[in-house]
Amino acid sequence: MNMSHAYDRLDTWIDAHFDEEVQFLQALVRVPTDTPPGDNAPHAERTAELLQGFGYAAEKHPVPAQQVKDYGLQSITNLIVRRRFGDGPVIALNAHGDVVPPGEGWTHDPYGGEVADGQLYGRAAAVSKSDFATYTFALRALESLGEKLKGGVELHFTYDEEFGGELGPGWLLQKGLTKPDYLLAAGFSYQVVTAHNGCLQMEVTVHGKMAHAAIPDTGVDALQGAVAILNALYAQNTLYKQVRSKVEGITHPYLNVGRIEGGTNTNVVPGKVVLKLDRRMIPEEDPAEVEATIRRVIAEAAASRPGITVDIKRLLLARALQPLPGNQPLVEALQKHGAAVFGEPIPTSGTPLYTDVRLYGEHGIPAAIYGAGPRTVLESHAKRADERLELEDLRRATKVVARTLFELLQSRSHQMGA
Fold first, then answer.
1. Is 418 exposed, middle or buried (0-12, 13-18, 19+ CB in 10 A)?
2. Neighbours of 8 (CB within 10 A)
3. Can you tell me whether residue 172 is helix, strand or coil?
């Protein structure tokens, strides 16, 4: 088949089935997947049921209950759909269904999937239930051609990205349930993302000694110890701003303290304060060195306050995504078709976020990030109130992915994936 004729047929099929694609996304948004608490198996069951309606038998891979509980979540069932067309490379498409709780300030029901002014509102509408739809309908469009293709496509729908992905893609890869030749993961902007920051999260427990506020000298104020530690950590941010990444779209390292708990009452000297911190690492940094430095800074600050002791626990270590050279066929195809569909150049970039994609990269699988999303992450309101997705962005991204799959699964692509 003439390639341009095939692309036209893919576009036409997607346009003809777009209302159905929007309804599919609405159904996914209407099943909450707040993480925490992370009771996400029901969403996987609903997704599998909807996929069955398209003729896709989704393999259900439940993570053992105790493992999930130890991780701080309630239930995870990861899904794999496999479509094999012939000998050749397997392209996996991964999107995650878990999402942070909606929070306050919504003007639309976070689980309503309402469409208004060409936008679909709801928690995970943009990141990343949108790409359950993008990838499913791109695959359906590809199969509608009835053409002989070389290779295969897998859909990986997983439920652990907010907690680091170790029980999502990490679990599927570790168990040997998949080993694709390429990986395309849920996107959040027009760019093709090929690198991202790493993330280290830690819990710091500051111990002092409780006392009545009327006789404070009989205690050791853990909060004052925590303040010394916080000041030392924030001083590091001044130093981090002097370190610049060479990756477009990524600036400098950053440290954020996102949660503080402590004390028992207003009239009691706090005996314990717990801090949770998030340290974003640029691709050029060594995670072990970063962690050692933070531990040293905390220990030195604590030592400046007599009677204060600290316990430090690592909560998460997500390594940065470094672009693997083998990702070029995928990246170039996405850029070419993105430019054709959107009518503008589609650049490659890095992102300061961290994603599940690094787990595929650590297994030597060339990867890129691309899917439905606005021009920038900020426009989508991801992780904020009134998260939304422009439906035209969903339509266009689906066309780009379908065209890319068709190009890579032509006979010559077998050599690309070799």
1. exposed
2. 11
3. helix
Rounded (10°) angle between helices 130-144 and 3-16: 130
CA dihedral angle for residue 278, residue 372, residue 93, residue 286, rounded to 10 degrees: -30
DSSP assignment of 87-135: SS-EEEEEEE--B----S--SS-TTT--EETTEEESTTTTTTTHHHHHH
Write out the DSSP string of 255-280.
Answer: EEEEEEEE-S-TTEE-SEEEEEEEEE
> Cα(391)–Cα(172) distance, rounded to whole angstroms?
31
Q: What is the pTM of this model?
A: 0.85
Residues 151, 173: Cα–Cα separation, whole Å: 19
Q: What is the pLDDT along the chain (418 residues), one digit of tens a residue?
A: 689 999 999 999 999 999 999 999 999 999 999 999 999 999 999 999 999 999 999 999 999 999 999 999 999 999 999 999 999 999 999 999 999 999 999 999 999 999 999 999 999 999 999 999 999 999 999 999 999 999 999 999 999 998 889 999 999 999 999 999 999 999 988 899 998 999 999 999 999 999 999 999 999 999 999 999 999 999 999 999 999 998 888 999 999 999 999 999 999 999 999 999 999 999 999 999 999 999 999 999 999 999 999 999 999 898 898 878 899 999 999 999 999 999 999 999 888 888 889 999 999 999 999 999 887 766 767 778 999 999 999 999 999 999 999 999 985 533 444 3
Answer yes or no: are the C-beta atoms of 320 and 283 closer than 8 Å: yes
